[in-house]
Amino acid sequence: MATKSLASCIFCKIIKGEIPSFKLIETETSYSFLDIGPVAKGHALVIPKYHAAKLHDLPDEYFADTLSVAKKIAIAQGLENYNILQNNGRIAHQEVDHVHFHVIPKPAASDEEGLVVGWPAKKPEMSELKALHEELLEKLG
Fold this sequence. Notes:
about 140 residues; 5-stranded antiparallel beta sheet; 5 strands; globular
């Protein structure tokens, strides 16, 4: 398997076994392990074995396996409530420049364990949404 890696990337070093981890599942294209700074018990990371800083840099063939591994981790933990989180860029809270997915258990409704999210929803005018929709359809087309 062709794997692009970056010598200084902590996740690439974990994949290569240069840095120890609490490995959960390893496949041909993905590697998963327990997070050493968890926000909840069972917080795990799933990383593609291809080094890409952001989601849009990752080849499509890595997506299905990565999400399948995340699903297996959630099932193995018997999670009823959990978040799958993926960040891109510093201002979007990405700390390691290697695509990774967090599987974060949410065991209780409180803010004491699990992901705490603020969701500052806006109420745009329908004409603004329509214009954006048309613009995106043109670019996606």
